[in-house]
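TEACHING EXERCISE
Course module: macromolecular assemblies
Task: Read the component lines below, then compare them to the predicted structure of the full complex.
Student: A.B.
Group: 4
Components provided:
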Amino acid sequence: MDFPQTERSTLKRLPQRGVYDRQLVYAILDEGFICHVGFVAEGKPVVIPTGYARVDDQLLIHGSVASRMLRILKTDIDVCVTVTLLDGLVLARSAFNHSMNYRSVVVFGKATAIEEADAKLAALRALSEHMIPGRWDEVRQPTDKELKATTVLSLPLEEVSAKVRTGPPSDDDDDYALRVWAGVVPLKLVPSEPVPDPRLPSDVELPSYARNYARPRE
Amino acid sequence: MDFPQTERSTLKRLPQRGVYDRQLVYAILDEGFICHVGFVAEGKPVVIPTGYARVDDQLLIHGSVASRMLRILKTDIDVCVTVTLLDGLVLARSAFNHSMNYRSVVVFGKATAIEEADAKLAALRALSEHMIPGRWDEVRQPTDKELKATTVLSLPLEEVSAKVRTGPPSDDDDDYALRVWAGVVPLKLVPSEPVPDPRLPSDVELPSYARNYARPRE
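Instructor-supplied answer key:
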């Protein structure tokens, strides 16, 4: 089922690139793990990058209880969270028609804090599993003190839109005769060889979830 | 010379990760080419991804004159532009100490439109060269009509901060005894084999700037 289109979530520019399909929105949110959180502080916009996870129709973000951003977001104010996956440079025959291939999601709403300890722990587990599946069960679990030092916020996926551009350049008819290379340079966030902590004993093996890290999960 | 620290640009959280060094800010802005633009529309925050370029102490963004974002930003309102480079996942021995390595820049200010035709053309050239150096001189140049259909905005780099995390995880003393792998999974935006436009004649060669695309420029 599509996300409902509200005035705010309806694309103003290039509406043909707008997508409200729930499965596509999920796929974008599940591939990314960095979002840009926009809020208004003292009347002015602030945009801060942070990690996130999606669980059903909730977007979770977290951080220190000392985080100014999280303290502000807890006060029932409007937030805009944007996730952008860059897929390539689109090289057209004219300067004007150059573009990028991308998939982005914009979520509008208000976040609420997850206060109850079990729910908070489940959210932190989801955040970890979203970033690197398999990791959570191997590491030392949060203490009560660490849980108390952490704020977890949940933003409902209610007012959501996606915008997607794919495929080759779209040139003006006359420009196709030009003898200039045109096409797409694909781009992807790629892991390289994991770097062990200098203090790691040499006989601790690299786990497969780190050796074969990939997004989306393969 | 460092960027001056204002109340707004002074990091609230983990100030030890804060950087105001001009050369480091430039290096981050010059490696990235996607920013997230935050502004307030009808009292609510909006965050939109877009391309950008840096020229001296100006950040340039552009788009269609029909873009709602650009029309709003032209009206002398506050904007926050954030650029984030993700460098890796930081796997600690405890769930709590997991982190990411990243370099981000946050710019606060007001943007102004570049209206004069020669200045606008120079800005568009800079935007193209920032995205893919060498491309501009090979493609069809903008017509007057295309120039008129394009808005270019300039945001002064005056109120700017960077935030950087590098290196291995930082674990609690007691956790170093745990037999769990710890370290960093490096991440990088990497190009793959360029994909020619289906309408490209087969004898048009792939230019080296597309074949060897890399960020930062090598």
